[in-house]
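Subject: Predicted fold for Inter-alpha-trypsin inhibitor heavy chain H5, 701 residues

User T.R. writes:
Posting the sequence so we have a shared reference for the thread.
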Amino acid sequence: MLLLLGLCLALPLCAGSLEEAGTWGDTSEQVGLRVPRQVRLLQRLKTKPLMTEFSVKSTIISRYAFTTVSCRMLNRASKDQEVTFQMQIPAAAFITNFTMLIGNQVYQGEITERDEKPGGQVKEKRNKTAEDNGEKGTEMFRASVVLPSKDKAAFFLSYEELLQRRLGKYEHVVSVRPQQLVGRLTVEVNVLERSGIAELEVLRLQNSRRKGSGSGEDDSGPPPSTVIHHNETFAHVVFKPSVVQQAKIAQNGILGDFIVRYDVSREQSIGDIQVLNGYFVHYFAPRDLPPLPKNVVFVLDSSASMVGAKLRQTKDALFTILHDLRPQDHFNIIGFSNRIKVWKDHLVSVTPNNVRDGKVYIHHMSPSGGTDINGALQTGIALLHDSVARHDLEDRSVSLIVFLTDGKPTVGETHTPKILNNTREAARGRVCIFTVGIGDDVDFRLLEKLSLENCGFTRHVHEDEDAGAQLIGFYDEIRTPLLSDIRVDYPPDAVEQVTRTLFPNYFNGSEIIVAGKLADRAKDRLHVEVTASNSKKFVVLKKDVPVEPRWGGSGGPGGPGPQGGGQEDPNPLERLWSYLTLKELQSSWLQSDQEQERDRLRRKAQALAVAGRFLTPFTSMKLRPAPQAHTPEATYGLAGMSAAMGPEMVMQSLQGTHLQPGPALKKPYDPRIKISKTSVLGFRRKERKNTKNLPLAQFLG
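User M.O. replies:
I've generated the structure tokens; pasting them so everyone works from the same file.
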């Protein structure tokens, strides 16, 4: 009986299985749906655009870095596919060229003036790129092209930057993020410093935001396969990992920053002055001076949005910072939300008891309410002014506000221009404001302008496991003021178009840089005078400096002279002067409230940027087909790239065996291209909206 019942139950199941199997045999789509997941993954990987080469070459001459990135891609799919090249670049850098090679056709980037927007305003848009990518101090350049099946594309991006000295070192950071294993991956960095190289080191690959993608098993020292050669004035660093070495670092491709850190030798107290072909640069970084007393008010956001890790890590960082204050310093603490809470009604001296009480006050801060930025700044500035008026502070001291927030103004005065105006009028140039934006929701644009207008600088601290260390690192940059009211003078008839020469403070480990043109190249000496105040006396430094160029050729020490095709090596000091001048024009444009003055600054910056091929918020880049010619440089549209690559003696040109024409396209087509870039002022820009589906002819206009 049981056997009969089992047979009855089995027959419908077998019939159902046969029917289902028959259905599968008739429907090819359903067969595809049953492909194992591992097989589908392998199919996608097989058709993913293949990066065959990723190469970065940097040349640093007198702290000024020329960098060129080259990337080659292959569409392995059996159909047209979008190929994307993207590169993180330092936020302070200017892009100077972009060239794209598709088959045997070259598309060359051209820097032009950006059209003025209605109402006389240059278009501004908040940048989210840095926050979205989780990287601080970087911006993203992207270029996409729809590439025919089995065809190749090559991308070449050049940018320049002036390295800033922080905590006694220069850092050159190269983003290495191919996001796949690459057959030929190379990073080459050349450093040329006439005054001598000191303490050069290569750090391990850095990327704190993405676990398992930064460095391999060995967490110390340079990445595997890194080779370093250097002598007194020149260093050559190469990172060239094989595919196996890349896989050991990260299975899906390297994702990190390659960092070269160094300092230069310093001898003269007046600084290092270099001259080349009518341009000069003056580096001033004195040392072995007694620190100035500082008067610092810590203004801490304790609104409801600071709840959790942000407030906890900020408190821990401030505990460390309070212990680091010197006995001659004075300090106070303000917590603000919708109410302003002041620890003491005046600045107090640094004693063990005051430090202990300050830590207790910070410990008991609890997050609640809104964010009254204007009221907090006004209170902090008033505290400093009152202490100075009562002669509680030393005459030769520096007054600072360290302002930390994670949000936007929501209580009291919330209109940004009014907050900026109120702060500027209250500070009157006597109080420097250093701002820190915590997390991704902060109004970084407001903090940037607050610092720019009040002799400070701003930093963005990401909300992650090392936020406290980032805050301490920020404070370390301003912990030791050595000089105040610095003035650098040259004879008016000897120089012209000189960059900024007045500086409110000089902090230990930083550097003051002045650049300009020589009005009379026939003179063999340049008189330099630096005046400043330190903790003990008024300092005056004077020196007559020889101005005959110590560098041969036209591009650097022993430079080779003109390149093929009549292209001369760029004068690195001229490029540095242009870079500094553009930065100062942009800063002045940001700070100005007068429409006529902003227009004048914009036009001046535009003219300089177009002449020097710098992509700035006032210029734009358009891709145009390069004219066909017989010479290699012209054929590949690289004649203008040499200006962004540095002297030939240090960085070889892209022309030659590394830039061979690709195969002719299988069929005539108009590539669809889109380009987006984050601007140097923190605004995200797209060269043309919705260009993804536009043919190249429409994109170029």
